[in-house]
Amino acid sequence: MGANRIRVAKDKADLVKALVASPDTTGPFQTYADVMVFAAALGAKGQKRSPLEAIAKKEPAPIGIEIFVSRGYDSVIKVLAIAETKDAKILSAFDEKAEEERIHIFEEYANGGLEILRDEMRGAVDYTERLLLVLSTARFKKEIPQGSFDLSRFL
Length: 155
Known about the structure:
The protein is an all-alpha fold. It has helices spanning 13-19, 32-45, 65-70, 74-85, 96-121, 127-139, and strands spanning 5-6, 63-64. Helix content is 50%, strand content 3%. Helix 2 (32-45) crosses helix 5.
């Protein structure tokens, strides 16, 4: 399974690449790890956990867990795992099965978040501007009464 690597779904690989800043893209993120953590947080917020089917083999290749640890993202992986399982044993540093489960939960939330991002980014030319709009909308979102039509999505 490659428990020490975070995998990216093959159908989301192009989106992940486009979200990372490069000469060819207007991506708002510095690394693939940044994209995956943001996507996992978005997936958790939206309660969207989606299993990975086909895995991207080349670009982006599975990301080593040490990259997440060096950037301080291991805490996000642990928080998602404990929130999902409600079992503190999932945090064990000595249990390989617990680490596999933590990574599995993180990958599925990231995949769910990437699905949300894919829908939100559809048709966007500049991903940075669209991402700011998405974040701003989420921050200032008001409850819409049941049965009313919300035009704010088109702004």
